[in-house]
Design goal:
The protein has about 140 residues and is α+β, with helices and mostly antiparallel strands. The protein has two helices and six strands. The protein has a single domain, classed as START domain (Alpha-D-Glucose-1,6-Bisphosphate, Chain A, domain 4), CATH 3.30.530.20.
Length: about 140
Amino acid sequence: MEIIRTLDVTSTEFFDYLEDRVLNDVLENTGNRLNHSSVKGGLTYTKHYQKAKTDVVFKIDQYIRGEKYQLTSRSVADTVTVTYLTEPEEEKTKVTLIEDIDSYQPDQHNRILGWFSQALMLGRMSSTLLDMETDIIKNRAVKEA
């Protein structure tokens, strides 16, 4: 599934946000404090989900700051690859979000259920990008204060 949105944030702000999320996730789940230069292809860490009683392994597949961030998460139940492709547009950033979920097989659903499933996924993906934009703008306001 793919969705494209133009966010009211700069490319630098967008990638700073992604890096900060990765660094915080690594710290919370491994106790290792990494720096921004550690966020690159090959970085791998495991996160335990207590409620689901499962571990998920996260691996950054590719990271080109200002252009692309691709992460794959693997659990016993599924493999999900999330890719962000960006293009700067003055003070905004055009973001293409691509999600590939191994267990998602829309061709195995009837047409109506397939459309409904797609609509739900696209809505969630759009919400994800808008939430990221909101967080970045809030952080910007804090830094400027």
